[in-house]
Design goal:
Layout: H1 2-16, H2 25-37, H3 42-48, E1 53-56, H4 61-78, E2 81-87, E3 100-104, H5 137-141, E4 152-156, H6 173-183, E5 188-192, H7 212-218, E6 223-224, H8 225-231, H9 239-248, E7 252-256, H10 259-264, E8 270-274, H11 281-284, H12 291-294, E9 299-303, H13 306-316
Length: 317
């Protein structure tokens, strides 16, 4: 029955979106099936409304933030959330879950495939927000610890293997130098590129950009998230907890394609996302104008290259 439904939904996607590439229609098909699969929960979700839903996820951080967390939060608000299960150091993201288990010590990116228990589970040109609620991370973690004389601005960089290829979406040292020089007088810049030991990894190997020592020497006014972690280790539960506290007090972000972009989009303000065309499905489905702003109401500016990052910074920051 499932195979027949999937084939039928692919046909519907082909008829409705004839100009969409044939391979991309599989994403639309899968999201159709995810939504259709929710029909079996109508009675439990809207009439019985007792705690029953177990949200269990081990896939990519990006998908967890975009689809899983808002789904779990909806069930919490609806009164139907029984339990949540995720990866190590994710408890603070699920602050609303009274029964949360940190079961997994690694992420498996394939876990999102054929997982139809969430209304939105993959890339699509449309999303269903009927069981999807903004998670108030900014309100939950606003604090008086990470406040500075100048407004905070977070540069959330990354440097890792992408799609089994060398790094594409990252800020190199020359661009970092230009950004810091142009912004440091107006903002307290906080630089964030988590080390492999600080987060739960997936298939994307984290490489060394060799920027930490350079920033400390050339731009000592910049705060490094890694240094903040050491300095406040007695006040936070883990690196994710620190990130939540720091991000909650910030309204200006520069982030990279993937999990860093989704995370920064949770905290309102403006988020400049560097995402080069060619690999990410976000471009094909225009997701930087749909689900990314939806995460918190943040203004999302999609930079397709490093020079566009600089242009957006000059115009908006």
């Amino acid at each position: 029955m499932q195979k027949i439904l999937l084939k039928s939904l692919y046909l519907i996607a082909s008829i409705k979106y004839p100009k969409v590439r044939s391979d991309l229609r599989y994403f639309i098909r899968d999201n159709y099936y995810c939504r259709l699969n929710q029909v079996k929960y109508i009675f439990k979700d809207y009439f019985v409304k007792k705690k029953y839903k177990i949200v269990n996820y081990q896939g990519e951080f990006d998908q967890e933030l975009r689809y899983i967390l808002p789904f779990a939060y909806w069930h919490h608000v609806n009164g139907t959330l029984e339990r949540t299960v995720s990866c190590k150091d994710m408890k603070e993201f699920y602050f609303f879950s009274k029964n949360h288990e940190e079961r997994y010590t690694e992420r498996i990116w394939q876990a999102g495939y054929n997982y139809y228990e969430v209304p939105n589970m993959t890339h699509s040109n449309t999303f269903d927000y009927s069981k999807w609620l903004r998670v108030p991370l900014k309100k939950q973690y606003a604090n008086s610890i990470f406040l500075y004389d100048k407004p905070a601005l977070i540069i959330a960089n990354k440097y890792n293997i992408e799609w089994d290829k060398p790094p594409v979406n990252y800020l190199d040292l020359p661009i970092l130098g230009k950004l810091i020089t142009s912004l440091k007088d107006r903002y307290q810049i906080i630089y964030n590129r988590p080390l492999a030991k600080q987060i739960v990894g997936d298939n994307s190997e984290i490489l060394d950009l060799n920027e930490y020592a350079w920033i400390r020497e050339a731009h000592p006014e910049v705060l490094l998230m890694n240094d903040l972690y050491e300095r406040h280790s007695n006040e936070v539960n883990n690196f994710n907890h620190l990130q939540l506290l720091v991000y909650a007090n910030c309204n200006r972000f520069i982030s990279m394609h993937g999990g860093t972009a989704a995370f920064a989009s949770y905290f309102e303000g403006i988020n400049i996302i560097l995402s080069a065309p060619g690999n990410g499905m976000e471009h094909h489905f225009n997701e930087f104008e749909t689900i990314f702003p939806q995460l918190s109401g943040a203004k999302i500016l999609h930079a397709k290259n490093r020079e566009e990052v600089l242009q957006y910074v000059n115009l908006h920051y």
